[in-house]
Specification:
4-stranded parallel beta sheet; about 25% helix; alpha/beta; about 325 residues; Rossmann fold
Length: about 325
Amino acid sequence: MPDTAPHLLFAALGGTIASTANPLGGVAPALSGAEIAAAAGLEDIWPNLQAEFAQVAQVSSANVTLDILHDVVELARTSRASGLVLTQGTDTLEESAFGLWLLNDSGVPLAATGAMRNPTLPGADGPANVRAAALSVMSPGLRHLPCTLVFNDEVHDPRFARKTHVTSTAAFSSGPVLGAIGWVSEQRVLAPHAPRPWSSPFAGRQRPEGFAPIALIEIGMGEGPQALRAIAESDHAGAVLSGVGGGHIPEHLITEVEDLAQRMPLVLASRPGAGASLTNTYSYPGGEIGLLTAGLIPAGMLDARKARLLLSLALSYRLDPAEVFAAFA
């Protein structure tokens, strides 16, 4: 059992973990971060726990933004806490955890978590997830990481974690190749697969005044050119193309895709989202070799949603997108 009394900061954004019944017949975020943490029974682990609380937002996860994530990082920078537990809705938890992986230069480890069952339901999982997240940010084997995603007693690397089920309490996975980097057992964290320390290209940079809008296009069977044409004429600063397989498109879209790549930075990701987008295998029309030759930027190990966040940050911080994405090749 951990014997060091930590100083933990709990940053709450709302979400299912904070939701209670309302007059409309459903549930909505209402509980404070202090109430969420109290249900986790952390004093059973650390009787002398020092805790502070920050209600950064009280929203559904669909309303979490990069601005809010920057606010969380600012809290970590100004806090004397030894670890920060972030609670929010699960719908965009994978994006928040990845965003914080990129942005957290505070030296304070973060663990992002939430709940699938709201507190009005039997077997609500929020308290256990907060408990596991608190243990994770205090784990010596994980403290070198800027952020982890902790859920269902598993610890995930945010670069690979995805929500893979709508309602299961085991909703998060890191794909068929990597898996969780650690897990919680008997009030301790085992982290045999923790990655090396990460140096973010955004560390130490001044927060941008706004964030570049990025379009996300997923290619499906028989996809028409209308969406590509609309984005080419829009005010988006860049786009991510989620191509089938390793990053491919039907032949009839080549003209529109190449035109879009001339107008704005265009990242090529793979629709499956696990593994790396291909770069040098398929040379048929619409294959990745021709697309990359036309100027598209490979997403590497990132799925399309994470690539969208990274491209937005790269353009907002005025960095070369190709150089930023090269770190994920």
